[in-house]
Design brief:
Blueprint (H helix, E strand, L loop, with lengths): L4 H15 L6 H43 L2 E4 L8 H8 L4 E16 L2 E10 L14 E4 L9 E5 H7 L6 E12 L2 E15 L4 H4 L2 E5 H7 L7 E8 L5 H11 L4 E4 H4 L1 H39 L1 H9 L4 H32 L1 H12 L6 H4 L10 H18 L1 H6 L5 H8 L1
Parallel strand pairs: 3-8, 5-7
Antiparallel strand pairs: 1-9, 1-10, 2-3, 2-6, 2-9, 4-7, 5-8, 6-7
Length: about 425
């Protein structure tokens, strides 16, 4: 027979009395609070870790797309990419910007230091339509690339080689001529006209930009360097379909979208995220078992009270509802506090990391190891709702065994034993 509202209020009142602190049962109450703390810590850890994993995914995707763009066109066949092709791609309603590029590798020499670099030849005007390079220049300007043999270098590379705007460097290219003394690579002097910070050490330490015209002047043979197009889309989610459409229209070119260029990298992040979620749910599961043990202890402690309730006419269903509500209260409080603390930590993670670093005088988050310059955090509301509901449902299921155990004892025998 279902419980009416009055009986439900009474069951809720009794559940709160069982949970409340009393001197003569302080240990049981202490264990109940430990159960709440266990749920809180599990939810807190889940929210913070998932937010950090999401932050890494979002930040790394944005940093990578600043360099590779949403869709790249690789000209393996070395056909002439004329203005007609560029205009046709630009006229697609999904496109917000198109520019050409040239790629090569080399060895940069300065101040008796040698460093391998990736050299990207760009159109400094059109580049602004496909990337945030211009806004990431912290010294100098992208517009200075109008002069041939001028370069932009990353901040990490500039610090390593002790370079400033206005300095000259020598770059060796993987092309040259064979003489009687052996192979002589092409050597060219470049002037540093700007320093950029992309916020990703991998790029800031090995990537340099120059003008496309400079690349073409160095390499007489077009087969010695890569060239193609960078395409920026209005909606990044259109990249897969767009690249397929363009591939059918221009079969002599090779269209690659951002999900393919770093496919394994982003897949690894997703796998790691799922593994971390499973591990952290195990922490929550430990807290759930703690709730079960707490309720079983309360059932054993409250045998007399349960017997009195049964003697006064309380049904088995009413007794079950008392302990289900007791476990639900523990789970609800733990989940609610865990969500609040988790969101608070996730929203202030950078400040917390800075405080810990200043407290212990050590660097917990180095960009050389983690690619990024700071610890990112991105809260996904759907994940928060899923974590909260799933943990709360688990706590309700955890009450089933102790609740039915409370109805197993015979009231008369229990009361007779207490006399």
């Amino acid at each position: 027979m279902p419980l009416n509202y009055t009986k439900l209020k009474l069951a809720f009142f009794i559940a709160l009395r069982f949970l409340s602190f009393r001197i003569n049962r302080s240990f049981i109450t202490f264990i109940s609070y430990i159960s709440i703390i266990g749920i809180t810590i599990g939810i807190l850890a889940l929210i913070v870790v998932m937010s950090v994993m999401n932050g890494f995914h979002v930040e790394l995707k944005n940093k990578i797309l600043n360099v590779i763009s949403d869709v790249q066109v690789i000209n393996y066949n070395k056909i002439n990419i004329n203005n007609k092709i560029i205009t046709e791609i630009e006229n697609d309603i999904r496109v917000s910007g198109v520019t050409t590029f040239s790629d090569s590798q080399g060895m940069m020499l300065s101040n008796k230091i040698a460093q391998g670099v990736v050299i990207k030849g760009i159109d400094h005007v059109r580049e602004k339509t496909v990337s945030n390079l211009a806004s990431n220049v912290i010294d100098g300007s992208i517009n200075f690339l109008i002069k041939d043999f001028s370069i932009l270098i990353g901040e990490s590379l500039a610090n390593k080689m002790d370079l400033n705007v206005g300095d000259d460097v020598i770059i060796l290219f993987p092309d040259g001529r064979v003489s009687i003394t052996g192979f002589l690579p092409i050597m060219k002097r470049f002037k540093v006209v700007g320093i950029f910070n992309m916020g990703m050490t991998e790029y800031d330490s090995s990537l340099i930009y120059t003008s496309e015209n400079s690349i073409r002047k160095i390499f007489k043979n077009r087969k010695k360097f890569d060239e193609g197009l960078k395409i920026k889309l209005k909606n990044i989610d259109d990249a897969i379909v767009f690249s397929k459409n363009m591939q059918e229209k221009f079969p002599e070119l090779y269209f690659v979208n951002w999900t393919e260029t770093h496919k394994n990298f982003f897949k690894a992040i997703q796998i790691e995220k799922r593994v971390m979620m499973i591990i952290l749910f195990m922490i929550v599961s430990v807290a759930i078992f703690n709730i079960i043990s707490t309720l079983v202890m309360i059932v054993n402690e409250k045998k007399s009270e349960i017997a009195l309730l049964r003697a006064f006419g309380a049904s088995k269903g009413f007794v079950v509802s008392v302990f289900v509500l007791l476990g639900t209260i523990i789970g609800f409080i733990g989940t609610l506090v865990g969500v609040i603390l988790g969101l608070t930590v996730a929203l202030n993670l950078s400040e917390i990391v800075l405080f810990i670093e200043s407290l212990f005088g050590s660097n917990l988050f180095t960009s050389e190891v983690y690619f990024l310059n700071d610890l990112p955090s991105s809260i996904d509301s759907s994940e928060i709702i899923f974590i909260s509901i799933f943990a709360f449902i688990l706590t309700i299921f955890a009450t089933i065994y102790p609740a039915f155990k409370a109805t197993q004892s015979h009231p008369a025998k229990v009361l007779r034993a207490d006399i």
